[in-house]
Specification:
The complex is a heterodimer of chains A (435) and B (262).
Chain A (H helix, E strand, L loop, with lengths): L4 H22 L4 E15 L19 E16 L2 E10 L5 E11 L7 E9 L23 H9 L3 E11 L6 E11 L6 H6 L14 E9 L5 E9 L10 E10 L3 E9 L7 E2 L2 E2 L2 E13 L3 E18 L7 E22 L3 E13 L10 E12 L5 E13 L3 H5 L4 E16 L5
Chain B lengths: L1 H7 L7 H21 L5 H16 L4 E10 L9 E6 L14 E3 L1 E3 L2 E3 L2 E5 L2 E4 L8 E5 L6 E6 L7 E3 L3 E7 L6 E7 L3 E4 L5 E8 L1 E8 L12 E5 L2 E9 L22
Parallel strand pairs in B: 1-17, 3-7, 6-12
Antiparallel strand pairs in B: 1-14, 2-13, 2-15, 4-5, 7-10, 8-9, 8-11, 11-12, 15-16
Helix pairs in contact in B: 1-2, 2-3
Chain lengths: 435, 262
């Protein structure tokens, strides 16, 4: 970490992949490969260790230096004109480092025979909730660090199943408005909210890969008198299936041309909160989600997302070695996050975005929670994209948070201000933009 | 003689060719009678009589039909499809063997032009000028079709024989939307920036004028208007009522935000 070696290696691998991408692109319409590589210099001001290193901080990088942020490849393969395979794989060198797969699914879009357009996806994919992450590789064209909500979606939400959606242009509105409904049934995702609970909300751009084993803040070990006598490291694999109970998400969306969009959705992993499998606990996590996007006068874009949910986790024991018996309900938490972002583009190449996030984790009965979290964040970003290949930018991120039991568990202050300045350079290669 | 025939022809046909032929016939008959210094023979007389009758019944004059399209306040509206169908003549379904051709391109994930106005029977090409593939389709009754995933100009042109509005989309890029307006007449045009349509060489007679734009509510479009075209310029004012959908609503609007999500 922090050395120049890894960025150099990453760029080297990117160049090697470029030739493969160019070759694939030359094959015509059936295969397209898109590669993105991002390297950034970070200057941070924080007393907390970064969470991917097992710390309790909200930042992805706490040390100053140059980091190979991400190298990703997005592959589109046309099996038939209406059947498309999409795979996004990436390389990161923090957390559970190495190569991994972010998304892999088959997308079927039959040719509409009426105003109803249907789409079915099978595989591992993101639910269509984020307003920010519309670029290749589920990256954001607005800020480098995603909002708290979308950071968490990238960390712990990745349904493995099927999604059906129906879109209909409303002829009565002269085709300027459309509605869309979607529904998904999925497996996996049972430990979702483990990282959110232990570490709290975060703002960064690291997406969890399907097989990642992420470090989470260590488990406190309590002595006989109730005092914390030590900690033990722990990890989470957010996409594990622990109880063979499928989860679901459903949603509806209304859109008015490229002017306004409103979406409502509900997600529930329906995990058995005392299930345990493959070293992972099931956390019953559900949330409601509202997203609003409006094109304001003067080419100013406004977007906002709001999420409110809860998670339950029951620790259990298995004295006889048989099924785990519920022991104690350790977690019964509400979590909430929201953000408002304003963004504008000048001359197709300069983009300025400013975002304000608020987030919290607490108990419905106001009892102090083991891992309560509350705070807000400001993100200010400027990006320069002179062409489709290169982009650069600078981002200022400030997160202020308060965690009541932090001093007791980890000996760190109750309140924390984490600041980060980031200078990024990104390279995009392979097939041109557009899907 | 050939020159006489040409001169006697109506600019756009429409039954006037018969008159031209008869004129020629009359001229021939007259010349024959002059040369023989005798009264015209019966066929010539019949022809002359018939000519007078036809001339009275169908004065073959070509006029110009100028239509102004405005909104409630009279502000001009451009890119409105306007066409005039002769009342007396059966609308064309399949015109001459020499088919007309038109093109609806795909540029930057948009159909260009957004509204394509053609007469029934026209062949339409759908070239893809983008670097990404498109999958063009329509489920409209007037023409249901599908051009499977392609780049460039790989598909042969399609014939649009049935009059009506054909809504065109792309199965990959949801925001792409285009309209092909197929009309049963040869007299049509899109309004210009001043909201004006000038249809020249329209044979005199009664016409039904229809105005259509995807931006207007069906109830806001004026009813088909009947107009008599005579020699000279016939003017017609039409008004589209109600709020029009902004032009950019059918295209890519705000680029400040991301509208592609998955």
């Amino acid at each position: 970490m922090g050395s120049l070696l890894k960025p150099v290696v990453t760029v080297g691998v990117a160049v090697a992949l470029l030739s493969a991408a160019s070759h694939a692109g030359a094959e015509g319409d059936r295969n397209e490969v898109f590669i993105g590589v991002g390297t950034a210099y970070f200057h941070s001001s924080t007393d907390l260790k970064a969470w991917p290193e097992g710390g309790v901080g909200k930042l992805r990088y706490a040390d100053d230096g140059v980091e190979a942020v991400r190298l990703f490849a997005e592959y589109h393969g046309r099996i038939t004109p209406t059947l498309n395979a999409r795979v996004v794989a990436d390389y990161v060198d923090d957390g559970s480092s190495g190569l991994g797969i972010d998304e892999a699914y088959i997308d079927w879009r039959p040719i509409p025979r009426s105003a109803n357009q249907q789409q079915v996806r099978f595989g591992a994919f993101y639910p269509p909730l984020s307003l920010e992450n519309g670029a290749h590789g589920w990256e954001s064209p607005f800020t480098y660090s995603y909002s708290a909500i979308n950071t968490w979606l990238g960390e712990e939400i990745r349904p493995l199943g099927a999604e059906w959606s129906l879109r209909r242009r409303l002829a009565s509105t002269r085709n300027t408005q459309e509605v869309r409904v979607f529904a998904s049934g999925f497996y996996g995702n049972d430990p979702a909210a483990t990282l959110l609970f232990w570490r709290g909300w975060s703002l960064h751009d690291r997406q969890t890969r399907l097989n990642d084993k992420l470090p989470i803040p260590p488990m406190p070990i309590f002595g006989a008198d109730g005092a914390v006598v030590g900690t033990t490291p722990q990890t989470v694999q957010p996409f594990t299936e622990t109880d063979h109970r499928p989860g679901y998400y459903v949603g509806g969306e209304w859109r008015y041309a490229h002017r306004a969009l409103v979406q409502l959705a509900r997600y529930d992993n329906r995990a058995d909160p005392w299930s345990f499998a493959e070293g992972q606990w099931g956390w019953h996590t559900s949330f409601e989600h509202l997203a609003v996007q409006i094109a304001l006068p003067g080419e100013l874009g406004l977007m906002a997302q709001w999420m409110r949910g809860d998670t339950d986790w029951l620790a259990g024991t298995s004295p006889t070695g048989g099924p785990v018996e519920p022991w104690v309900q350790l977690v019964e938490d509400d979590f909430e996050a929201k953000y408002l972002m304003l963004t504008r583009k000048w001359h197709e190449a300069h983009r300025v975005s400013v975002r304000y996030d608020r987030f919290s984790i607490d108990r419905p009965d106001s009892v102090p929670v083991l891992h309560s979290d509350g705070g807000h964040a400001w993100t200010l970003s400027y990006r320069f994209e002179p062409n489709e290949r290169f982009s650069g930018g600078v981002e200022w991120l400030e997160i202020q948070s308060q965690r009541d039991l932090w001093p007791y568990f980890y000996g760190v202050p109750r309140q924390a201000t984490e600041e980060q300045l980031r200078l990024q350079f990104s390279l995009r290669l392979g097939a041109p933009a557009g899907r | 003689m050939v020159r006489t025939l040409m001169a006697g022809r109506c600019a756009l046909g429409h039954g006037c060719r018969a008159k031209a032929l008869l004129t020629s016939y009359f001229v021939i008959a007259g010349m024959v009678s002059m040369r023989t210094h005798r009264l015209p023979r019966m066929p010539a007389l019949v022809a002359a009589t018939a000519l007078i009758a036809i001339g009275v019944a169908f004065p073959c004059l070509a006029g110009t039909l100028e239509i102004k399209v405005g909104d409630e306040r009279g502000e001009p509206i451009s890119q409105v499809a306007v066409y005039a169908t002769p009342v007396a003549v059966t609308p064309i379904k399949k015109p001459s063997a020499a088919k007309r051709t038109a093109s609806m391109d795909q540029q930057h994930n948009e159909f260009v032009p957004h509204v394509l106005l053609i007469s029934a029977g026209t062949l339409v090409q759908f070239p893809n000028s983008d670097t990404v593939s498109h999958h063009v389709y329509s489920f409209s009754q007037a023409k249901t079709f599908e051009l499977a995933l392609y780049k460039g100009n790989t598909h042969p042109p399609l014939a649009f024989d049935e009059p009506g509005v054909v809504v065109v989309g792309c199965n990959i890029h949801d925001s792409m939307l285009g309209y092909i307006v197929v009309v049963p007449t040869e007299h049509y045009a899109l309004s210009d920036a001043r909201g004006t349509v000038r249809l020249e060489g329209v044979p005199a007679g009664d016409y039904t004028v229809v105005v259509w734009t995807p931006r207007a509510r069906p109830t806001g479009l004026p009813a088909a208007q009947r107009v008599a075209v005579t020699d000279g310029v016939t003017k017609l004012d039409t008004r589209i009522t109600g709020r029009l959908a902004p032009e950019e609503d059918h295209k890519h609007g705000s680029k400040s935000l991301s509208w592609d999500r998955y």
